[in-house]
Amino acid sequence: MDNTNEATVVASLPVEERLDIYWNANKRVLYTLLTVWAFVTFGCGILLADWLDRFQFFGFPLGFWFTQQGAMIFYVALIFIYHFWMKKIERYCGFIEQDPVKLTKQLLRENDKGA
User: Fold this and answer.
1) Which is higher by pLDDT, 101 or 16?
2) For a FRET experiment, which of 37, 60, 62, 80 has its CA 20 to 30 Å from that of 104?
């Protein structure tokens, strides 16, 4: 099944199920990006700094450069990656540009039908 058909199937699910799918995907994104953040911050900036200092980047030891400026560039990149990744997940779950009030009312209506 291609991604378009699968997204259509997911978007047709009840809101509660789509919220579960969305939250699980959101957690996967957060864990992945936090792992990258931790590696860049602690791995490259602290633990691997001496090893990285053997290499030069714009005339500076790479470990020094990573600690002073390189990590900041990675952090900004992580923000953009998070934004585009979450937009893709929202589109997949059928939540893109959906009014939160409308979504809440729909969820309440579905819960009333089940009760």
Assistant:
1) 16
2) 80
Q: Which residues contact 95 (CB under 8 A, 6 or more apart)?
A: 18, 22, 103
Residue 25: per-residue pLDDT = 94
Mean pLDDT value of segment 51-75: 85
Structure token pair of residue 12 = 């047709």
CA distances from 45 to 36, 52, 67 (A): 12, 9, 5
| Residue bearing tokens 């990590």 | 71
Integer Cα distance of 29 and 50 in angstroms: 30
Contact 110, 14 (CB under 8 A): yes
Taking residues 84-107, what's their average pLDDT? 80
Residue 60 phi, psi (nearest 5): -115, 150
Q: How confident is the model at residue 115 (pLDDT cuts 50, 70, 90)?
A: low
CA distances (Å), 49 to each of 37, 71, 95, in order? 16, 12, 42
